[in-house]
Each structure stands twice: as C-alpha cells, then as structure tokens.
Amino acid sequence: RVKEKWAVTRTKHPPTSLALQHFDSTYSVQLCQLWPSVRAALLSEKKYGALLNNFCHDAVVANLEAQGCRDFLSDTDTEAQPSSEQESEVAADEEASGDSTPKKSDIDGQQLPPLHLSPHIKCFVFPRGDITRFKPARPDMCGLLGYYLMDAASLLPCLALDVQEGHNVLDLCAAPGGKTLALLQTQAIGFLCLNDSSVSRTLRLRKVLNSYVPKPLLTDDKLRITSFDGTKWGEIERNTFDRVLVDVPCTTDRHSLMEDDNNIFSKIRTGERRKLPQLQLELLMAGIEAACPSGEILYSTCTLSQTQNQSVVEQAIYLARENHGIQLQVVDLRPLTHMCRKTFHFAPDLHLGEMVIPHLASNFGPIYMCKLRRLT
Ligand code: SAM
To answer: Which ligand 1 atom is at minimum distance from the Cα of 249?
Structure first.
C-alpha cells in the first residue's frame, strides 16, 4: 500500500480553510439567511467583465457582441427609479442622540441630483447564468489591448466617483490599475495622481497603463505615479483633489477562499490582517484630507466585512469632524445601484454605502462602496 504523502507536505490548516471558518462565523451573523447562497457563490468560479479600451483601434465591440456579451451600462434599468422620498443625500451632522452616522431612513423629502454616467465607460458581460470565459484581449496595430478583464462590479466605484471634465483626481491605492483604467476611459480627467505603496505593484500599474493607454496621454503634465505610504498623504497634499478614490487593501474575500498563495489568512499574516481596519481608516482619513472642500471621496473594498466597510466609514466621518473640523455628507448611491440591478445583486438595507454580493447567477463581487462629500 502506498502511504499518503500529503500529510507531510500540506499544512494542517491551509489559509483558505481558515478564511472559510472565519467567514462562516462572522458572515452567518452579519448576512443571516443570505450567507449560504453568498457562500456557495464565493466558492464557485467568479464572473468577469471586459472593460472596453476606447484607445484601441480594433473593432472590439462587434467581436464581443458576436460572442453573446452586452455592455451592462447600456442595458441599465432607467425605469421605476426609487421614489423621491428615498432619493436624496444624507447630511452627516451630529444627531442629538450622539450617533453621528447618517441612516438611509433620515433622507426623506430631498430630491436627488440626476445621475451622470460617463458615456465612454463600457463594460461587456455575459448574460445572467452564463459562465463563458472571455478570451485574452489582443493588441491592435499600436500594441494597445482591446479590453481589460476585471470583476465588473469593480467598475461601480469608478462610476460612483462621477469624474467631471478637468477634474484633479487622486487614486490613493491604485495598483494594479483596473479602476485607474476605467477612470481614464472617461477622457475627462485634468490631472491624475496614481499612488500605491508597493513598488512592485506600482511597476505592474505602469505596465498596465502602457498596454492600454497611448503614450501622449501618460505625460508628466497629465499624470503622476508615486509609491508613497498613502496614510501619510496629508503630509504631502491637503485640500487639493476634486475626486479621491480610496480602494483599500482588505481581506479580499474571494481570493482568500480560493488561493493559498499570498493569502492574508495564513498564520504568519495574522497581525497584518488584524491591523487592516486601522490601515483602512488611516487611508480613508488621508483621502478625506486630500480632497478639496466640496470634493468627493469614494471608499471601496472587495470584502463583505462590516468591520472593514461601514465601521471604517463611520469612524472616519467622526474623526474628520472631531480632529480636522471637516464636515462630510454621505452621498446616496441608490440611483446607481437601481440602474444596475439587472446585472448585480446588492445587499439589502445597508445603513451606509452599497455592496454587491456574489450570487450564483451573477457571480460578481463582493464590492463595497461608500461615497462622501466634503462640506467644509
Ligand atoms: N485600485 C486597484 C485596482 O483597481 O486595480 C486595487 C487596489 S488593492 C485593493 C489595494 C492596494 O493598496 C494594493 O495594491 C496595495 O499595495 C495598496 N496599499 C496597501 N497599503 C497601502 C498604503 N499604506 N498606501 C498606499 N497603498 C497601499
């Protein structure tokens, strides 16, 4: 009989199993009856979207459509918008109760501004329930690739950021650059600052940009790439940017369940994992300080964790006011989620922000996002 070898070569508790144990204990409480179906989706193959590269010269759209995909942004649900009672923004003024966190139920009676989506951002997906994989993108005659494969839900934070013509934009944790590419597709940005503390990931970001964006759009007068610790950004630049994307490191739930390599649930990374909410808070605070008054900040993660999502935003709203005298308003993203509800499943009744939850028929996410506007 051949003796089994795996016991000596495999660790007793692989990080993926530790992640599943952790998620089972926390998300079964947080998501209640939704957890079993979200869990099944998280453990299944994820779906991609193909972010169209407008800078590519090939007839990519016809090719993608011939394969049966559609641009989910031109197939949005514009009918039956939420009632004006629900469509509004929330002032983050301190309530008498001392609870400064705005609730969606507090937002009655105001009219939401219309939702502007850049007509240049296009992302193709296969229909619900169809798990066909995309072929790798091919370069055109200039060497630029036709599309970038990413979780289609990752596009929502970029759309929610609502970049306008000439805006000065900071992407604080930018590598490897999926969201940066989406922002560049708008062709509206005046100046773009890209930062990521990891030097190797910043190199990857540069490679991505070179594969998708023509060189004349990557010059120093249009774009700056740095590798600073984003938590220290306030020491460099304050009150500067019209838009700030704070796409923080997190437990990357899907990756943590599927890949033992580079897994934040490995025993040696326990300390790093426990410190994540503090790092996320510091990055969000730096993003808030970097934005100009009336500027907007988009916080996003790819975890379902309330501790890394809503709790971080709540603390940032409090600290911005108490320590920096900055008043923030939470921007209601329901017009966006309503428009995209045919493509994504959203968590119901989040009191702060919006979250795409994985579903077997539409296996995108998780993506959490919350948008803040500086009032002062
Ligand atoms: N926005 C990227 C995209 O769409 O491709 C993904 C960003 S990823 C979720 C988080 C990034 O934060 C990682 O690339 C990581 O290197 C970076 N990061 C971690 N700590 C940081 C810090 N203190 N300052 C800046 N970036 C940091």
So the answer is: 10
Enter the ipTM: 1.00
Question: Is residue 249 in contact with ligand 1, taking CB distance under 6 Å?
Answer: yes
Give exposure, 318-330, as e/b (b: 16+ Cβ within 10 Å). bbbbeeeebbbbb
Q: Where are the domains of the chain?
A: 90-116+153-374
Annotated catalytic sites, by residue? 302
- Over residues 108-120, the pLDDT tens digits come to 445 566 677 889 9
201 CB less than 6 Å from ligand 1?
yes
Class of domain 90-116+153-374: alpha beta
Asked whether 177 lines ligand 1 (CB < 6 A), one says yes
| C-beta 277 within 6 A of ligand 1 | no
Residue nearest to atom 10 of ligand 1 (CA): 249
Amino acid in position 170? L
Nearest to 240 by CA among 299, 193, 186: 193
Spatial neighbors of 54 by CB under 8 A, at least 6 apart, are: 120, 122, 185, 187
Longest dimension (CA), the chain: 75
pLDDT per residue over 256-299, tens digit each? 999 999 999 999 999 999 999 999 999 999 999 999 999 999 99
